[in-house]
């Protein structure tokens, strides 16, 4: 049994053939010398049987997303896999790349290899699947033959849930337009995205994995560059070429991947709080006393459960880590707060505290952009919801009595 993960587990600095044989290298006459020619020949044989187009001599870092998926398949077949588990294999692929992968999957099926294909894209399930199992909140809602079920029936099974999971937020008076995003384009990532956010408004952004949600906000924050487009805040055109520019203009981003992109591992709560506050550095040194005062305020306001503020941030629970990360942005009193999956990996108690904090920011007239894969969260917290699909903002929905089933249909495009 082999698994192909959504994020390819490959070594970028090695060639295609070296990745296939990693840990099981072929040697020649000398036992400690890798026989690269023999490895490349055998890898090419597998590639030819699958009718792939995959150069074996190039470094993995030079491959496209679809080629990396193909390489993972080659690795699995080299290990004589009888069952292949594919986790959201097309989430980062374009239409043509997806078609090519579908062809390969059918080829594998015809060769007698069992495929477990995990996907939010229901059209793919119906294109290549024989049976489908619907999971909701970690539970199986049943297994069905593809011939015996429709897309609508699957969606109904996906969304049926206890209404108590929806957070009942209080309404906030919404003011004038403050943030305007016009025709943001990054070729191959997002295309011609336009929307506005009013003071006190929570503008939700939803869509399937790979729809371009996080990529869009990374552009707004200056972490990625746009090829075209304009951003205005309170009528002023902003030049954002880096996260430093975004922070200077009053834009804060609570990123999706806190461990990789927001936490300073091995450092304490105080130092993690100080990351975005350059005014508390004297030269290259942190003004520890001043930052400790600010940290005390955050710990008390957000009820961060820690032994003390000198505790390493990785020793905290996921919810308390998130509170520290959100808290660091409250110090500067930004105008725009972007929350990318704000309650991911967070317990129920911390989740509600984060919701209350978001509403408090809205009451203070801040612009809130919230990306979430949690449908009850998206529906209960947002005033309007932008629907992302294939890198485009295809719809903006007024959140008035809209059903979860309808939103999923919009995400899928059915």
TrEMBL record:
SUPFAM superfamilies: P-loop containing nucleoside triphosphate hydrolases (SSF52540). The keyword Transport applies. InterPro entries: AAA+_ATPase, ABC_carbohydrate_import_ATPase, ABC_transporter-like_ATP-bd, ABC_transporter-like_CS, P-loop_NTPase. It comes from the Bacteria. Residues 172-412 form the ABC transporter domain. GO terms for molecular function: ATP binding; ATP hydrolysis activity. Coiled coil: none annotated. Keywords: ATP-binding, Nucleotide-binding, Repeat, Sugar transport, Transport. This is ABC-type sugar transport system, ATPase component. It comes from Mesotoga infera. The lineage of its organism: Bacteria, Thermotogati, Thermotogota, Thermotogae, Kosmotogales.
